């Protein structure tokens, strides 16, 4: 520190400290305004997003889902939590998951996991799926 201060005194004539440096004022602030149909600059070159699945009320209000669309292969009943393996995925009570049938994607909620069966809900439909034993 003494060497730097000495050099500054020798060259500048007076010591210069960080508190004495002038503040920098911005004259022009940069901005980025993306147009509605512009390509996102963070996407790889040539990449285009895939179309999103429409989930309107008319499409999903249709047919009821059969319990055959689900396979419950295991149920675990712990004092603190209940879990089931439904269609190969471990799911707990109250969780939601997606079920794809054809082109449709349905939101399913696990209402209850009981001994030997799982109760699922989709909108106002209650689906009872028994445990498949081999």
Stated plainly, the CATH topology of the domain at 66-130 is called SH3 type barrels
Could you spell the SSE succession in H and E letters? Answer: HHEEEEEEE
Global structural class: mainly beta
Q: Write down the overall geometry.
A: elongated
Number of strands: 7
Query: What portion of residues belong to β-strands?
Result: 25-35%
Mean pLDDT over all positions: 78
Task: Itemize the secondary structure elements and their pairings.
Layout: H1 2-12, H2 57-60, E1 72-77, E2 82-86, E3 89-92, E4 96-101, E5 104-114, E6 117-122, E7 125-130
Antiparallel strand pairs: 1-2, 2-3, 4-5, 5-6, 6-7
Briefly, what is this?
The chain has 134 residues and is mainly β. The protein has helices spanning 2-12, 57-60, and strands spanning 72-77, 82-86, 89-92, 96-101, 104-114, 117-122, 125-130.
